[in-house]
Amino acid sequence: MSVGVIENVSFLQVALAAAVGAIWLTTMSLWFLSQRRFRCLNQQLVRLQSELKALQKDQHLALQGSYGMGQRMLNLERRLKSFTDTPQPEPVIEQPFSYTQATQMVEEGADEEAIAATCGISRSEAHLMRKLCAQGLVEPFA
After folding, report:
1. Phi, psi of 106, rounded to the nearest 5 degrees
2. Higher pLDDT, 116 or 142
3. How far is CA 96 from CA 93, 100, 122, 124, in A?
4. What is d(CA 110, CA 112) in angstroms, rounded to the nearest whole number?
5. How far is CA 56 from CA 43, 61, 66, 121, in A?
6. In angstroms, rounded to a whole number, what is the distance separating the alpha carbons of residues 113 and 130?
7. What Rg value do the Cα atoms of the chain yield, rounded?
8. pLDDT tens digits for 42-91?
9. Whole-angstrom Cα distance, residue 98 to residue 103?
10. DSSP annotation of 138
11. Cβ-based neighbour number of residue 38 at 10 Å
12. How far is CA 105 from CA 5, 32, 62, 86, 117, in A?
């Protein structure tokens, strides 16, 4: 072999070694970067899984509360329906009390029983009306 071929072989070997070294260095750099990125993504995944579990727990609690509130609402609706389904007694229509009418009846000489029945007052109130009229404390009917 000649010296020029040896120099070419050495140069090719050096160039090839440099290329292999560059490829190896690039590959290792990419491997380290990918490992670093993998660790970051793995940490992010763990954090997101933890947040997901916390959100699922909160959702579960909210659903339980909603279910409980729904049951309470249904119970209240049933109770309300039972109140509206039961017949209500007719309202008592009271006769309007009229002092003027009672005074007029006292002046006409009606007895306490008639005054009480007609005006919707008790016998004792009718008796009191008679006394007040007799003493002039109630103005006579005009």
Report:
1. -65, -45
2. 116
3. 9, 11, 13, 18
4. 7
5. 20, 9, 15, 70
6. 12
7. 53
8. 999 999 999 999 999 999 988 888 888 888 888 888 888 887 776 766 66
9. 9
10. S
11. 10
12. 152, 115, 72, 43, 11
Environment class of 102 (CB within 10 Å of its CB; exposed 0-12, middle 13-18, buried 19+): buried
- DSSP annotation of 122 reads -
Q: Can you list the alpha helix ranges (DSSP code H) found in the chain?
A: 3-85, 99-107, 112-119, 123-135
Residue with tokens 């007799």: 134
Judge whether 20 and 28 are in contact, CB under 8 Å: no
Q: Which residue has the tokens 């006409």?
A: 108
Q: Which two tokens stand for residue 74?
A: 């249904």
The answer to whether 107 and 133 are in contact (CB under 8 A) is: yes
Amino acid at 115: I
For the beta carbon of residue 133, count every other beta carbon within 10 angstroms.
Answer: 19
Q: Which amino acid would we find at residue 10?
A: S
